[in-house]
Amino acid sequence: MNSSSVAMIKSMSISPGMPSSSSSFSSSQSLSTPSPPSTSLPLRTIPGSYGWPLLGPISDRLDYFWFQGPETFFKKRIEKHKSTVFRTNMPPTWPFFLGVNPNVIAVLDCKSFSHLFDMEVVEKKNTLIGDFMPSVKFTGDTRVCAYLDTSEPLHAQVKNFAIDILKRSSKVWVTELLSNLDILFDTIETKLSQSDSVSYLFPLQKCLFDFLSKSITGADPKMDPHIAESGHTILDRWLALQILPTVSIRVLQPLEEIFLHSFAYPSFLIGGDYKKLYKFVEKEGKEMVERGQTEYGLSKEETIHNLLFVLGFNAFGGFSVFLPSLINTIASDKTGLQQKLRNEVKEKVGSSRLSFDSVKSLELVQSVVYETLRLNPPVPLQYARARRDFQLSSHDSVFEIKKGELLCGYQPQVMRDPKVFDDPETFKAERFTGEKGSDLLSYLYWSNGPQTGSPAEFNKQCAGKDYVTLTASMIVAYVFQRYESITGTSSSITAVEKAK
């Protein structure tokens, strides 16, 4: 795997997190749904247009990928239309995506964005990355849970199976995480003794694959030498080939536009290696596969392909994007944040073995995780299609949405909503502490729903949202049990000082 492969993983629009349950590991509650539009808000025609057929989508595509980049693309249109809701086009487009409709309605403030999670007015069928859907051959001709709408009976079966997977995995989750973190940081320290800077991306992905594979599928990579050596690189390529038309890897233009954004890549490029992963889970994760069949009525193929998607797309992909951002936030900080984190860990946890319960007491650690998710959400884009005609409200207007129209939210922009977050462009480590900070969690949407929501079979919230945040908090706590300080970036570690 080369550096461009890592760039593709870090840039991709994927659903992070793996199936799990809520903070109490219960899925009995629904997500909060948007309040009805206020009668005091004016009804406004949605500004913006899709432009001339063919030319409009191409122009927006070039702005999005080349001339402006996603952040400027959305900011300029907000300024132009004086609205956080407007019509535009989203890639992929022409020449070889003739069956893909790029027309979307952008929703870019917290209030309008929240409609994407109201399953009474929107649906999520085949909208994971917009109107474009990678070939189902990437998942063995199976439409996995991420592409199913809540109205489809199979969704409830797979979602409940996924929730059950994680509940059962709690027996080994922490043990596997901590043992693999030991291996990861032992490796980093060894390499640091020989060099001034060590890239941790590949070792981190190896750590993630080993710990997640055993925790989620019950399959131990050590039982298959090829998978143990190459499983994480197989997932990198499998992920990248599916989402290449929708992401930028910042290579030389116009080569990126010509070769990466103009056509969908065929599944046969990874088919052989994917089959090896399938056989690995089929053999080594036999107990989990049988549970999907006997307890949830899934076929063996449905069970294994959904397990692989949860492992590869949701969990491995999500953590591969998020954790480097979190490490960079801490390791590059010059404000004294590390000392505050270290003091909290030493005071509340000490040298005791970490657990989910123990990290729940680390308010600052959790706030840093939440704030990193706010500014650098691993899922940049969210989509949903109007299930029926309805009225959508932003902070200052109401808009008529017609059945079948595709809504698109760019989370890095939404999470900088100045009407919700004070000084939204600034990283504030303590933003989510205290009562006021707890209230803000209702607007933290990184997980396909608010952090205060609860994953369930009748919504599309990432079932693993709490496992993700608690796991990230545990990693931070582990670092400050092991080190006094750590210095580095989103890709490398340059120095560590052992704990005293």
Lateral arrangement of strands in the main beta sheet: 1-2-8-5-3
> Main sheet?
5 strands, mixed
Order of helices and strands: HHHEEHEHEHHHHHHHHHEEEEHHHEE
| Average predicted local confidence, pLDDT | 92
Coarse shape: globular
List low-pLDDT spans: 1-8, 10-33
The total of beta strands comes to 10
Terminal CA distance: 37 Å
- Percent strand equals 5-15%
Structural overview:
By secondary structure, the protein is α+β, with helices and mostly antiparallel strands. It is 47% helix and 9% strand. The chain contains 17 helices and ten strands. The protein has a five-stranded mixed β-sheet with strand order 1-2-8-5-3. The protein has a three-stranded antiparallel β-sheet with strand order 4-10-9. It is globular, with a radius of gyration of 22 Å. The relative contact order is 0.19.
